[in-house]
Amino acid sequence: MTSEAPSGQAMIWNSDEKIILSRRLYALRVNKNLVDNNYLKYFIQSPIGQKSIVRNNSGSTVSGISAKTFKNIKILIPDLEKQQAISKILLAIDQKIQTNNQINQELEAMTKTLYDYWFVQFDFPDQNGKPYKSSGGKMVYHPELKWEIPEGWGVEKLKYFSKYVSDKVESSELNIENYVGTDNMIVDMGGIELTTSIPKLGTSTKFSIGDILISNIHPYFKKIWLSDRVGGCSSDVLCIRTKKIVSREFVFATLARDVFFNYDVAGSKGSKMPRCDKKHIMEYPIVFDFEIADQFSKIVRSIYEVVHKNYIQNQELTQLRDWLLPMLMNGQVKVER
Asked: What does pTM read for this prediction?
């Protein structure tokens, strides 16, 4: 469990491998005859547990909980059998969320492999259905890129395919499901999760289905998402809309790669909190052929639809788990044995 920045974040270490904890972490070991360790983790994560931790925090510069004050936290402990029954329900939800995440990771890895095969190795299907470059397809040297590309292919900047969105939406129209800030964007191109805070006043950039959202700060975290809904994003999130000349799936797959984020990082400004250079991003060169890009998009479109469905289901499951958590803890919802 974390002791500060923020305090009260918990996980279970299930490995037999020994670890060394930093000064901001505590290891809690339960009496297995009295407490189920999953129940204790869920209690710490529950609103009851979090409020109790906050009440016992101390410190002005960095607020945190000490080992001494942690002992003051009162934990609701029903009998062990009931604890295990509660844990079983919540674990089932978390396991489904984890399964969906694993499926999404595998599907996204498939699209990246296909993209690399077609647009990096240039082994897209030729007229005979054979891999183009490996089968002797003609390649020509491109002086700007300084490498060879298929004959007849073009190279254009990102600005040729897309533009930044400047539409606005009132904060009153947003909720935890359709507001995106850098905090609820997942690192390493993992999409988004439900936000924990929404601006109360003012406006946000309005995004639509198919827009590409990229975190504008700390580009090395590689935060990017292809929107499946209408909503609003913070000023620290860039919203890119693809023009109709090429599909959004192709542009998203082009940007959701390490190569793009390395380019983004190289053009970022600032040391303590580096920010993307919006003009630099729009100068990103893209190698393409309209027909091949269209074929690629038709293949991956159904994959992205499954990924989006899993994202939505995970958000619904997260809301269900977070609703059940306090209800099960305080007895408002009872577990039938």
From this structure: 0.82
